[in-house]
Amino acid sequence: QVQLAESGGGLVQAGGSLRLSCTASGRTFGSSVMGWFRQAPGKEREFVTAISWAGLNTLYADSVKGRFTVSRANARTTVYLRMNSLKPEDTAVYYCAADFSQLPGLRRAPSDYDFWGQGTQVTVSS
């Protein structure tokens, strides 16, 4: 059974930092692209970042570029999202997702990802 589990969310003041973790189990995730998405109340799920299976290539949404950093470790089964200089507009439920398509490149569309975690809430107060 495939499982993705996010952790590390919470309440933080604007300008603060958080580190989210996503741990994969049940399948060899080492060859998958991993992505982070977020969804705020009343809004569609949006792409945040993605990282290639080896961790050598990354892609960021313009809204988080320069503030967020994605990485992966532990035989590539754990993915981290370091979030600095947080803003109230970063408030959302954050999801990690796995793309097993083996297609070249990193993708932004939620429909391109095969498995999803349950999400972790990030709230940034002003």
Describe the structure.
By secondary structure, this protein is mainly beta. It is built from no helices and eleven strands. The chain has strands at 3-7, 10-13, 18-25, 33-39, 46-51, 58-60, 68-73, 78-83, 92-99, 115-116, 120-125. The strands form two sheets. Strands 2, 4, 5, 6, 9, 10 and 11 form a seven-stranded mixed sheet that branches. It has a four-stranded antiparallel sheet with strand order 1-3-8-7, with no helix packed on it. It is globular, with a radius of gyration of 13 Å.
Q: What class, by secondary structure content?
A: mainly beta
Uncertain spans, ≥5 residues at pLDDT below 50? none
Radius of gyration: 13 Å
The mean pLDDT is 93
Helix-strand pattern: EEEEEEEEEEE
Distance between the termini: 40 Å
Fraction of helical residues:
under 10%
Q: DSSP strand (E) fraction? A: over 45%
DSSP summary, beta strand count: 11
Largest sheet, strands/sense/barrel:
7 strands, mixed
Note the total helix count: 0
3D shape: globular
